[in-house]
Amino acid sequence: MDKDNAKPVDEQVKKGVTKLVVTVFAMFAFGFALVPLYDVFCDITGLNGKTATTAATVNADGIDTSRIIKVQFISRTAQGAAWQFTPEMNSIEVHPGEMKFVKFYAKNESGRDGVAQAVPSVSPGLAASYFQKIECFCFNQQPLKSTEDVWMPLQFYVDIDLPEEINELTLSYTLYDITDSAKS
Questions:
Q1: Full residue range of the structural domain in which residue 73 is found
Q2: What is the DSSP letter of 111?
Q3: Model confidence over 17-45: pLDDT tens digits?
Q4: Alpha carbon distances (Å) from 143 to 7, 61, 148
Q5: Are 151 and 88 in contact (CB under 8 A)?
């Protein structure tokens, strides 16, 4: 091979490797940026039914007694979580602005001390920003000893500004066993 012909090929290889390295770093950075971008997207569009993870303020707008909203409760445990997890009731009727209190039952059936965390979701997604939790077990991790059980509180109201076309919403919780990550 002629040395004069080798130089352009070496430069092309270096350019190609540089492009690949830059692409790999850009993909890596984009992967990290996806989570906050997804959260912003969900906040803007109301998709995924994400609810705020901090306590809402007390409703000062009054109660709209002309409307009744049916709130359904669904609970499930994530795969691999050996916990019982059920709502006290499957549904409740509320007037927008009316404060309600319900409980969820949890029991650690894993045979070892554990920690769980509940993650809420509201559907339809548009209703998520109108579902206000004042007190919720989902705000904190739930440590339970083996075979221990507990009734966990949820205090909420549905904002009176909930769009008229929504008269039913579903609050779904998934309970995750986070024992291993809570120890870290």
A1: 50-183
A2: S
A3: 898 888 888 787 777 666 666 666 655 55
A4: 65, 36, 9
A5: yes
